[in-house]
Amino acid sequence: MALWFQRQEAIFWQTSYLEWMAKCSAQTEHECEYNSDCDDENEDFVVPVVSQDIVHVLAKTPPHPRQSVQHLETIHGAIDFLPAFKSFLQKHFPHNHIVPGYQDHFDVFRQLVIILPPDPRVSESPKCLRVRATPEVLPSPSGWKPGSPARFDMALISSNGVQASKVLLTLDAAVRVAQVRVIFKLPRQFGVYSRPLAYIEWFTPFREADRTTGLRQVSRSTRHLRRNGAVVHVDEIIRPCHLIPKMGQSVNPMWTSANVYELASEFYLNTFIDLETFCMSAMIT
């Protein structure tokens, strides 16, 4: 009888804790992280009305205006930014006669906020996520202001140019992993364009799931022995994702959290990182 009472009490406290967590989660998601973390600069966002589509939100004003191409190549690691940007212009602005070069400058954003509509399998509240493209910040010489590591997030992106709001949220052939290096606006000399852009580096399409873990495998996509870079619309980014490096029988001692994405050659898509990603993986077509 005493054991039964102990179990009932444990159930009561667990239920109370889950209800408290649900309230905290709803409040956090409602705030939606429009004011970025303490390691980011303050950015003002336009808060959209809750939608049933995927909503992409950027700062009202780019926090890093007029960044040079050389800066993007060296500091952001966007080594093929110019060729990718030229390909984008040829596809979307075929009548443009201005050739981009190192003389051009770009207004750059630090992060993209993505608001996912409520998933009835997970929550009744919208989910708010961030995709960051921020280079390393060194500590100040005085030591008063600490530095911050580079954050070039991985994301699931529509691979056929379809807007994320029109993509069925499954890990099918139309969705691929990419690393986001730069989030920017089209300079005015190339035309008036309302859709922000992102320079990304593609990973390969999903291979068959690993027999042991059940996780889908990817690796860096290359073209002419270089990373497969491209410029895409920001609204083609579906959500951030997390990759786990494939360890093998031993772990490379040179790997760190700062360089593992650069040194490792194969990765697993972590579908257990959150419930939404897990539900997407469960609907593979």
Secondary structure layout:
Elements: H1 2-31, E1 55-57, E2 64-68, H2 69-74, H3 81-92, E3 105-109, E4 111-116, E5 127-134, E6 151-152, E7 154-158, E8 175-184, E9 197-202, E10 217-219, E11 222-223, E12 226-227, E13 229-233, E14 237-241, E15 243-245, H4 260-263, E16 266-269, H5 275-281
Antiparallel strand pairs: 1-4, 2-3, 3-8, 4-5, 5-6, 7-8, 7-14, 8-9, 9-13, 10-16, 11-12, 15-16
Question: Can you walk through the features of this model?
Answer:
The protein has 285 residues and is an alpha+beta fold. Strands 2, 3, 7, 8, 9, 13 and 14 form a seven-stranded antiparallel beta sheet that branches. It has a four-stranded antiparallel beta sheet with strand order 1-4-5-6, with no helix packed on it. The longest helix is centred in the first third of the chain and has 30 residues. The N and C termini lie far apart (51 Å). About 4% of the residues have low confidence.
What does this entry show, briefly?
The chain is of the alpha+beta class and 285 residues long.
Tally the beta strands.
16
* Helix count, DSSP H or I runs of 4 or more residues: 5
Low-confidence stretches: 28-39
* Major sheet summary line: 7 strands, antiparallel
Instruction: Name the helicity range.
Output: 10-25%
So what's the overall shape? globular
Alpha-carbon Rg, integer:
21 Å
Mean pLDDT: 84
Structural class: alpha+beta
Strand percentage lies at 25-35%
| Spatial gap, N to C terminus | 51 Å
- Oligomeric state of this protein: single chain
**SSE string:** HEEHHEEEEEEEEEEEEEHEH
